[in-house]
Design brief:
This protein is of the alpha+beta class and 680 residues long. Helix content is 28%, strand content 22%. The protein is built from 19 helices and 30 strands. The protein is elongated and about 100 Å long. The chain binds FE2/S2 (inorganic) cluster. It comes from Rhodovulum visakhapatnamense.
Length: 680
């Protein structure tokens, strides 16, 4: 043991070294690159630097820690303990000095770069590294003999106490500088943003200000907008809110919104104003709901497809409606949130827009790439973000490819005869008995299946109102598995299938899921038109994936990740029966939940993550489906259920499909495999 240069080991990082006796724990942490937080710069005010000193023998580290390894509790710590309370054994790292060999634990709440916790099965932790953080500075008082401005002395203090270059002070903050300095006794807390050309002061408070700084992670979808109020230091979501995208009234899908902009002078500006107003309203609402001072919301991260991105920025998306699909800008951007109409939060809050990948592949796909990190995977992974437009990524450590495919809104229940959005009363799960061809189902908002006792009572007066995206996918897949639909997508007649639920409708057939008379509502059926709509959507999705596989020169992928809020509800088996995704073992299909939203949250809380995705996006190879001649071939072949030519061996193993053909007056088909009852 050395009493001149004691050894110090920090846990859990394991970082170690020797420091001169008398060094504070905070100084030692800085010297050794240990992540120990501090807002007050070591003045014993913020308590962010709390540590837990170890005692006794640490054979693993080869260190024995004496009782007096750290200086005794000093007045600052005692005062803090009396006023606010220090947990037993805890010390303030900026006050405790190292006198002998020491082992110091840094608890998670004292780490500046805490991990953004991921819920996904394959957890990939991301360290927080926010662009804006609080910073306490003690500024020298003005001196008649050495005249200088308050801002200049503030900047001198920043250089001296935080080793920072001069910070820019916007005009909205400057008038508050002098009162804050005087009220705070020449001590102020700054919200300091790391801008591209140096620090920027976003806000100023007299004395020590300790409310957490927050940000908004916004996933701007063409149908829905989701917003997550997030603690910038921890990455924790404090509250979430969502709304329909108000631009829907100008057009359901992206191309109809581009057309609206083309056909109507001022149309793009109308759509810009509508979405900005909704974002601002959502931001104000979520702050109120969470009881957070809107002034503490200082960062925003936004993801969206190229059309959403351009309209939000006030850029006419007309160029995105035609080849070569030129983007006005594809790079990430940082700008005042107020410039995007988000004025209800801190007036100087900064908005970060993730980079776009290509004319049809947006910042939402970049956010999915940030969240799922295919570039770190040994397995060749196909990531599908299913929405009105499907964003598709295929890659591993060697290469990542991306494209988008126009699936249309059928997967969201639109263009379906009894379709509706996922809301209480919508059928979301369907099972059809392959013997009796009788269906049973579950609706959103009710735990029971339709054949469970008490279902009607549990359902409530609103009854069954329609079928949502996951429900129609399961219904069509179950019809295929039960031999009610053939490989070309044709519904058989009652005579062909042996089920009275198959009823003629013009020259085609439909399958009755629920007779309206039973519940006092309307009939809910799957029509031939519904199946065609699903076939078109799934063909677009599969063809996009196939194009990327062609580029990689592969026929198979190792894993499939279903992203998007809707992806979370798709049953992998049913998706494969329909041929929405390539054939892989079912246990290699995973749902990633709202990966675009997660990516936005990661970018919100980490400057390093922003730089990482900006770098990765440059490397992602873009495939433009609209001009790829093979897309049409893949699209046509993918029309069959599950596919006209691609083998689906894994699917055949777990769910052999009946060989039926209703096009040539074919008869009731024979199953390729044994009949089975599937679990609920
Ligand atoms: S660094 Fe603020 S109390 Fe120690």
């Amino acid at each position: 043991m050395s009493r001149e240069m004691p050894r110090v080991v920090f846990t859990p990082s394991g970082k170690r070294g020797q420091v001169p006796v008398g060094t504070t724990v905070l100084e030692a942490a800085r010297q050794l690159g240990v992540d120990l937080d501090s807002v007050c710069g070591g003045r014993g005010i913020c308590s962010k630097c709390q540590i837990l000193p170890g005692r006794g023998a640490f054979p693993k580290h080869g260190v024995t820690v004496a009782e007096d390894a750290l200086s005794p509790l000093n007045d600052v710590e005692r005062r803090y303990d009396e006023k606010r309370g220090l947990a037993p054994g805890r010390r303030l790292g900026c006050q405790a000095r190292i006198l002998a060999d020491a082992v110091i634990d840094v608890p998670p709440e004292s780490q500046l770069h805490r991990q953004v916790v991921r819920k996904a099965a394959e957890v990939r932790a991301v360290a927080t590294d926010p662009a804006t953080r609080l910073c306490l500075v003690e500024v020298a008082e003005p001196d008649l003999h050495a005249p200088s401005g308050d801002l200049q002395r503030l900047n001198a203090a920043l250089a001296d106490q935080w080793d920072l270059p001069p910070a820019a002070c916007p005009l909205s903050v400057l008038p508050r500088l002098q009162p804050a300095l005087r009220k705070g006794g020449w001590t102020v807390t700054l919200a300091l943003h790391r801008g591209p050309s140096g620090p920027e002061i976003l806000d100023i408070w007299p004395g020590f200000f300790e409310a957490p700084l927050c940000g908004l992670a916004i996933d701007l979808g063409s149908t829905t907008i989701a917003l997550h109020l997030t603690d910038l230091a921890t990455g924790d979501v404090i509250a979430s809110a969502g709304a329909m995208n108000p631009q829907i009234r100008f057009g359901e899908d992206l191309m109809s919104r581009v057309s609206y902009a083309m056909m109507n002078p001022g149309g793009a500006a109308e759509m810009t104003a509508a979405v900005r107003a909704t974002l601002d309203g959502l931001a104000a609402g979520i702050a109120t709901e969470a009881g957070i001072d809107p002034r503490c919301i200082v960062e925003v991260a936004l993801v969206g497809n190229p059309v959403m991105h351009h309209l939000l920025l006030g850029i006419d998306p007309v160029e995105l409606g035609q080849a070569p699909f030129a983007l006005a800008t594809s790079e990430a951007a940082t700008l005042p949130a107020a410039a995007l109409g988000i004025g209800s939060i801190n007036p100087e809050a900064r908005a970060y827009l993730l980079p776009l990948i290509a004319g049809h592949v947006g910042a939402d796909a970049a956010a999915v790439a940030l969240s799922e990190a295919p570039e770190t995977s040994d397995d060749l992974t196909l990531i599908v973000d299913v929405g009105t437009n499907a964003e598709i990524l295929l890659g591993d450590r060697t290469r990542v490819l991306a494209c988008s495919s126009p699936t249309g809104p059928a997967f969201e229940g639109a263009q379906i005869s009894s379709g509706q959005r996922a809301a209480p009363g919508a059928i979301e799960r369907v099972r059809i008995d392959p013997e009796t061809k009788e269906p049973r189902f579950r609706v959103i908002g009710c735990e029971l299946w339709s054949d469970d006792p008490g279902f009607a009572a549990a359902l409530g007066p609103a009854g069954v109102t329609g079928i949502c995206g996951s429900g129609i996918i399961e219904a069509v897949a179950e019809m295929r598995m039960a031999g009610l639909v053939d490989g070309s997508g044709l519904i058989g007649s009652a005579a062909q299938t042996g089920s009275d639920r198959c009823r003629p409708e013009g020259r085609t057939q439909s399958y009755l899921l629920l007779a309206g008379a039973a519940t006092g509502g309307r009939d809910i059926a799957v029509t031939q038109g519904d199946i065609r709509a699903i076939q078109l959507a799934k063909s677009a999705l599969y063809a996009g994936a196939r194009l990327l596989m062609d580029r990689r020169g592969v026929d198979r992928v190792d894993r499939v990740v279903l992203a998007g809020a809707f992806g979370a509800h798709i049953s992998p088996l049913h998706a494969m029966v329909l041929g929405m995704i390539p054939d892989v073992p079912l246990d290699r299909v995973r749902s990633a939940g709202n990966a675009a939203g997660t990516g936005a949250r990661i970018a919100l809380c980490s400057v390093a993550a922003r730089r990482l995705i900006e770098e990765n996006v440059r490397r992602i190879e873009k495939v433009e489906t609209a001009i790829e001649p093979r897309f049409q071939d893949h699209f046509v072949a993918a029309n069959a259920l599950p596919h006209a030519s691609d083998p689906f061996p894994e699917l055949a193993r777990i769910a052999p499909l009946p060989r039926v053909d209703f096009n040539t007056g074919g008869s009731r088909g024979k199953s390729e495999g044994r009949r089975r009852r599937r679990p609920r």
